[in-house]
Amino acid sequence: MRSIPNTYIFSLALADLLVIVTCVPFTSVLYTVEKYPWDEVVCKLSEFVMDVSIGVSVFTLTALSVERYTAIVNPLKKFQTRPVTVLCALIIWIIAVVFALPSAIFSRIVNSPIEKENVTIPTCDPYPAYENYAKYAVVIRAVIYYILPLIIIAIFYILMAIHLHASTKEIPGESCRGQGIAQAKARKHVARMVLIFVLLFFICFLPNHVYRLWYHLNPNSGADYNAWWHYLKMIGFCLSFLNSCVNPIALYCVSSVFRAYFNHYLFCFKDPEWRRQNYSMSRGETRIDSTI
């Protein structure tokens, strides 16, 4: 199971676990209580960890799309080694932490006024009181964490699809048997699995980015705020955390090998795939790709 794609998937799982353990218990109460019940340390920590998790997720998914392209097209085969992959994963975490530092520095407890009521309630605000800082911040976040990665991933998947389509036409029928066709199917399967992760990420974070951009770029957002935008805000809030929980479910559905390991370790059930995997390993055989 210690393959190059699985190294990135492990890093993705750590980011998901981090946000579930450190953010969800504190942030999930925001829509169930009237005011922010935690102190400024929790405010800074939750915002920082959430940004780290988002950064690691989107940068890892981008790296996975690049890795799948290189695995299928093989222009950079010498860089497809486990040490290089581990180094890339560490660099991704470092970049995500650096990009999340403003949230750790500027997040604070503020007293926000309630429209049509002469009261204020404490809330956790990730933006400082500088003029236009929030506007620039949400735009930069949308570009770095959403739009730019989506463009990069789309480019590599389009190139991947073009290469696969061309290679299918070039390969004669007789040569499509044996190791070659098995390897091609394995790589296509992992590419589809990564694509599912990417689609889940961008679907889960789309409402959140749409709401934030509208709220901070629309000068009349306070007056235009209505039930529809409130529902979109709550949906985006919930989906952003749901993304940290849905990846294992997707992995269980699309990967027979991961499903075999899930069944064994979670349900103490040894299915035929599990037995076949361990039989192959005991004989010293290696799989083309261990995420099939």
TrEMBL record:
The listed locations are:
Cell membrane
Name the source's superkingdom: Eukaryota
Q: Which GO terms describe its molecular function?
A: G protein-coupled receptor activity
* Topology class, membrane: Multi-pass membrane protein
GO CC, alphabetical? plasma membrane
SUPFAM superfamilies per record:
Family A G protein-coupled receptor-like
What positions does the domain G-protein coupled receptors family 1 profile occupy?
1-251
User: What does the UniProt keyword field contain?
Assistant: Cell membrane, Disulfide bond, G-protein coupled receptor, Glycoprotein, Membrane, Receptor, Transducer, Transmembrane, Transmembrane helix
| A Pfam family per the record | 7tm_1
**Membrane-crossing residues?**
7-28, 48-66, 86-106, 136-159, 193-211, 231-254
Query: Which PANTHER family would you find in this protein's record?
Result: LEUCOKININ RECEPTOR-RELATED, NEUROPEPTIDE CCHAMIDE-2 RECEPTOR
Q: Which family does it belong to?
A: Belongs to the G-protein coupled receptor 1 family.
Q: What is this protein called?
A: G-protein coupled receptors family 1 profile domain-containing protein
Can you name the source organism?
Hypothenemus hampei (Coffee berry borer)
